[in-house]
Design goal:
- The chain is an all-alpha fold.
- It contains six helices and two strands; from the N terminus they run H-H-H-H-H-E-E-H.
- A two-stranded antiparallel sheet has the order 1-2.
- A hairpin with an 8-residue loop joins strand 1 and strand 2.
- Helix 1 packs antiparallel against helix 3 and helix 3 runs antiparallel to helix 4.
Length: 181
């Protein structure tokens, strides 16, 4: 059986679909862990370790969201997917609409880049504190995550389903529905 061949844009869009699926799964895990359901039974050490893991989850989410905006050559991102679609003959009117959506995403994620990623994750400033900030300075990534889903829907020209099955005995999780509940 031969493997289906995709265009460059289709390859990028399929990869982005996987990226966003994992992003949504990470956000769901983050949200659930943030509830600290066992707080009454936790030792202080357990609490600190959970907060450190939540901070790591936040960093992963921010890194994923900002990667979707990377316009560097060879990056799997919204700008590069749109550029590939344009090279493959995207209709001018649709290209302009998609460009506006990608630009809106870039604006929404810019704050995460400047105020979190660039100063705290990947370009750590010389005197930056490296302590979990999940409690006192939580990072608001929800708007950018919602826009990421919407931008990929627009690029693909349809609503993308993000479903995850833990195992054969568990029901499938509709990630957008679960996160919006």
């Amino acid at each position: 059986m031969s493997k289906k061949r995709y265009t460059a844009a289709e390859d990028l869009l399929e990869g982005l679909k996987g990226d966003i699926l994992y992003l949504l799964l990470t956000i769901l895990a983050h949200r659930e862990k943030q509830r600290l359901l066992n707080l009454a039974k936790m030792s202080r050490e357990d609490l600190v370790l959970d907060l450190v893991l939540l901070e790591s989850g936040t960093r992963d989410i921010v890194a994923r969201l900002t990667a979707l905006d990377d316009d560097g050559s060879g990056s799997r991102s919204f700008p590069n997917a749109l550029a590939a679609m344009n090279r493959e003959g995207l209709e001018a009117k649709r290209a302009e609409e998609l460009k506006k959506q990608v630009k809106a995403y870039r604006g929404a994620v810019n704050d995460l880049k400047i105020n979190h990623r660039n100063s705290y994750i990947s370009h750590v400033q010389e005197f930056a504190e490296v302590v979990p900030r999940i409690v006192d300075k939580p990072v608001r990534f929800e708007t950018a995550a919602g826009l990421a889903v919407n931008v990929l829907d627009a690029l693909m020209g349809r609503q993308v389903g993000y479903r995850f099955r833990v195992g054969s005995q568990e029901p499938e999780i509709d990630l957008p529905a679960r996160l919006s509940a």
